[in-house]
# Entry
Amino acid sequence: MLGRSRAALLSVVAFWPASLLAWRLWCSASAHVPEALLAWPSRPGALCFGLTFLLGSWPLFALAMSRRRSDPTHPLSLGAALGVAAGSYAALLVDLWCPVGYPWHVLLGHVLPVLLIGVVGLAVGHFALGLRGEE
# Structure
C-alpha cells in the first residue's frame, strides 16, 4: 500500500547502472567484432551523453507528474529510482544505435547520464513526489 521499500528502490539505483555497463561491455566483447572495444578518438561520448540525457529526462518528468504527491514514506528514493529507470531505458535505445564499445566511451556516454538523471530524480522526488500540506 505504501509502495516499494527504500532498500528495494536503492538497490535499483545501485545495481542497474553497473549492470548496464557490464552488459554493454559483454555484448561488445562477444559480438565477434574486435574493433568494437577499440578507442574511437572521433567519438568520445558527448553525443551519446546528450542523447541519453535528453531521451531519459522526459520520461522522468512524465512519471513524476503521474505520481505527483503520492509517496508518504520515501520520495527521494522513489525519485532516484524513477530517474535511473528512465535513464536506463534511454541508454538502451542509445546502445542499440551506438557502435562504440570502448569502456570509457560507454562509461561517459551511456552510464554517466543514467546516474545524472538519477540525481535529477532526487530533486524531482523532493519537490514533486512527497506529500505536502496545503500551501
User: Anything to note?
Assistant: Residues 6 and 77 are 6 Å apart (CA to CA). The mean pLDDT is 85.
